[in-house]
Task: inverse folding
């Protein structure tokens, strides 16, 4: 088998029917391969990656979380990438990318938007994840290189956990800020209060009380559930 685009000279030997079928398949989002036996062309095959069953629903859930721009980076040709992106409701698709091309795209978007997250599972995705603000690897299906490079690893081959991870990280960030406010606020209160006569016993009670408050606030994460619309 030979790729239709591997040799321009070979196109001259293709029959009009095979060439027409190849164009039709490529236009519909397939990666086209021409089957040949010796000097005889037997036909064409149209191959196309299919999206994960949960992908479309996950993208919709991510939009409800406020993520406005989602782009697919693919090594498949542009027509295939466009077809899948349209099916899933993505904002943009970039096809025909080598690993180094994905890195350049990530760098460009990061320079423009300031922050970017990259979700991947293969060796080809690892360099791009390393250059993203946050790299997210699919744990069960991910390669060792991708898992080692990523900042976050979803320990199941299930995209539906991604919105949960995003929501949990945001809640965690919020609780960290709350706890810092309580801790630093208590310190800012206790130092001058002690200097102006607050007894050490009372100061200890205030301090330990704030510690318990911080711990209790953090434990709220155990009850976190993703909001459903």
Result:
């Amino acid at each position: 088998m030979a790729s239709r685009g591997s040799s321009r000279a070979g196109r001259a030997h293709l029959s009009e029917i095979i060439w027409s079928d190849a164009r039709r398949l490529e236009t519909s989002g397939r990666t086209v391969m021409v089957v040949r036996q010796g000097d005889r062309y037997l036909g064409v095959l149209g191959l196309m990656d299919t999206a994960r069953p949960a992908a479309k629903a996950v993208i919709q859930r991510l939009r409800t979380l406020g993520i406005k721009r989602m782009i697919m980076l693919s090594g498949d040709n542009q027509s295939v990438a466009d077809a899948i992106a349209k099916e899933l409701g993505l904002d943009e698709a970039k096809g025909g990318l080598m690993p180094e091309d994905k890195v350049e795209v990530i760098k460009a978007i990061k320079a423009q938007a300031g922050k970017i997250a990259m979700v991947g599972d293969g060796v080809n995705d690892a360099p791009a994840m390393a250059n993203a603000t946050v790299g997210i690897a699919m744990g069960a299906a991910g390669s060792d290189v991708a898992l080692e490079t990523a900042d976050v690893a979803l320990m199941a081959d299930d995209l539906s956990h991604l919105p949960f991870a995003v929501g949990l990280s945001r809640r965690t960030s919020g609780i960290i800020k709350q706890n810092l406010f309580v801790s630093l606020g208590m310190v800012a209160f206790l130092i001058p209060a002690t200097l102006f006569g607050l007894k050490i016993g009372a100061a200890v009670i205030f301090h330990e009380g704030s510690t318990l408050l911080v711990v209790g606030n953090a434990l709220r994460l155990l009850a976190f559930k993703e909001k459903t619309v």
Summary: DSSP finds nine helices and eight strands in the chain. The longest helix spans residues 161-195. Residues 31 and 170 are 39 Å apart (CA to CA).
